[in-house]
Design a protein that fits this description.
The protein is of the alpha/beta class and 507 residues long. The chain contains 20 helices and 15 strands. The protein has a 7-stranded parallel sheet with strand order 3-2-1-4-5-8-9, sandwiched between helices. A 6-stranded parallel sheet has the order 12-11-10-13-14-15, sandwiched between helices. It has a two-stranded antiparallel sheet with strand order 6-7. β14, α17 and β15 form a beta-alpha-beta unit. The longest helix is centred in the first third of the chain and has 23 residues.
């Protein structure tokens, strides 16, 4: 059912993304069979594409043809061959899904490799197909690119005078040379002036093979507008809060910001994260009956993971990857023994459903102290994570920086209150709880250290021990507010408003 909220004009939009979880029915014969995910970019891309499609936008999607990853696609391919697949491929322009086709994608097991050169190769081949084929086929009025793997496309489109929005989901980048770009089939000589080099280029010939191009910074530099995925993260970059961000990235974002060409648009979690319909949880529930619903899910999770079975045990859930550079897991590692010991009589429990470099660190802590029935460290599993959202009372997100974050929004929908560091998208979505005045939705600590996290956990436990009527009314309010606030339609409307603004400005 298409909504009435569409562009004032009728432009054709091309979204270029290296990953996506699913595509809307009606966007092409392969829509429901294409899913390639490495992180939040896939979820956000899928969300935006679905909402724009449902709003009636003339939307097209460019993604790599990850044939091995698209496992469900094999049966449909056989069917299509029986129904003249060649005819379908020759008329692909009538579809909204445009697959970048090359052997570089066909047999990959995952989107990203541990080897940077492999990632660079895939990026350049993807962009070659978009620049040389897909853009010419689609003839878009506006292009929306995502992250470093699409960073060269805005430089090309500057020359073509097609407006480009470049979304920064994370701050990772790779560097390469014009020679390498051209060896992979992209005629960079046509638009080399729009590339961002490590040093100021003298001319094309001088810089071709010894002056590296920064892919992420090029995307920012060459695009007409940029957006980060939260307003506070954009402000933090401009003000120089995070040392991990490359100077060139920061400077070009600042340039766009002060030119009025940078905004923050908060992401929204996938609509399937809904405790009333989620098929991965044991008992579905709403804000009306969350007390009994969460109790059943908690007991089930405790039994499944070998934890103390106690419906009154406060349960904390770690939903993010165990990455000490961004996610702050080292803060919890520093205080894990003290936290469990302090609330021993309360049977405080912590569940990790995450992969990452600190996975073994937490395993070793649990083994050393014999916390096996109080702390469960599990590899990431989508269904188990969903069950943990439904079973937990709190989630832990002490990130050092956070461009947006989705778990803190999902948690609120499931009645699990977030414990977070005051940064980026966490600042924009979590306000410290004042239970007696029905204000706030979580527990926020200001200073990034283990004692700050410990203080926030103490605040969460203080709330947990409050009278039942106070807890129930606040959690019910938070669940209802999260449902209204963190949804796809509001996010898509903000993107459409930005697209309209871009189309009205001269190039």
């Amino acid at each position: 059912m298409k909504t009435s909220f569409i562009f004032k004009t009728s432009p054709r939009l091309l979204i270029v993304t290296p990953e996506v979880t699913s595509l809307p029915e009606g966007s092409g014969i392969l829509a429901s069979y294409l899913s390639a995910k490495a992180g939040g970019l896939a979820d956000v891309s899928a969300m935006l594409i679905k909402e724009l499609f449902n709003m009636g936008v003339d939307i097209h999607i460019a993604i790599p043809d990850y044939r091995r990853i698209y496992t469900k696609r094999q049966n449909i391919i056989k069917k299509l061959y029986n129904e003249q697949l060649q005819v379908y491929m020759e008329n692909l322009c009538e579809q909204r899904i445009h697959l970048a086709r090359d052997r570089a994608f066909y047999y990959k097991k995952g989107i990203y490799s541990l080897y940077e050169y492999d990632n660079l190769k895939v990026s350049l081949v993807f962009q070659r197909e978009v620049i040389n084929n897909i853009i010419l086929r689609v003839k878009p009025d506006l292009v929306h690119c995502n992250d470093w793997m699409t960073g060269l496309i805005p430089a090309y489109l500057r020359k073509m005078k097609i407006p480009v929005l470049f979304t920064i989901h994370n701050i990772h980048t790779l560097l390469t040379t014009v020679e390498e770009i051209e060896n992979n089939g992209i005629d960079a000589a046509e638009f080399w002036e729009n590339l961002y080099f490590e040093r100021m280029p003298v001319n094309y010939e001088e810089s071709r093979n010894n002056n590296r191009v920064d892919l992420l910074t090029t995307g920012i530099f060459a695009s007409h507008f940029i957006n980060t995925v939260s307003q506070t993260f954009l402000k933090e970059i401009v003000e120089g809060h995070h040392d991990i961000i490359r100077h060139t990235v920061r400077q070009e974002i600042k340039n766009k910001y002060y030119a009025g060409c940078a905004v923050g648009i908060l992401n929204a979690p996938d609509e399937s994260f809904n405790p009333s319909t989620d098929k991965a949880i044991v008992r579905n529930y709403t804000a009306r009956d969350f007390v009994s619903g969460k109790r059943e899910n908690k007991i089930w999770l405790q039994k499944r993971l070998g934890l103390i079975v106690d419906e009154n045990a406060p349960l904390f859930f770690w939903p993010s990857r165990l990455d000490p550079v961004q996610k702050g897991c080292q803060l919890l590692a520093d205080i894990l023994y003290e936290v469990v010991s302090k609330y021993w009589d309360d049977n405080l429990e912590i569940v990790f459903v995450a992969d990452g470099s600190f996975f073994d660190v937490f395993k070793n802590i649990v083994n050393f102290h014999g916390f096996h029935n109080r702390v469960a460290v599990c590899n990431f599993d989508e269904d188990l994570a969903r069950l943990a959202f439904a079973a937990s009372d709190f989630i832990l997100m002490p990130s050092s920086f956070e461009p947006c974050g989705l778990p803190q929004m999902i948690a609120q929908k499931y009645g699990s209150l977030p414990v977070v560091h005051d940064t980026g998208g966490l600042h924009d979505t979590v306000e410290h709880l004042d239970p007696y005045n029905n204000i706030g939705n979580g527990f926020v600590f200001k200073y990034f250290d283990s004692q700050g996290l410990f203080w926030a956990i103490d605040e969460a436990m203080r709330f947990y021990k409050m009278p039942k009527n106070i807890k129930t009314s606040n959690i019910r309010r938070i669940m209802m507010q999260a449902k209204e606030r963190f949804n796809h339609k509001e996010c898509a409307k903000k993107y459409i408003e930005l697209y309209e603004k871009m189309l009205q400005r001269p190039l």
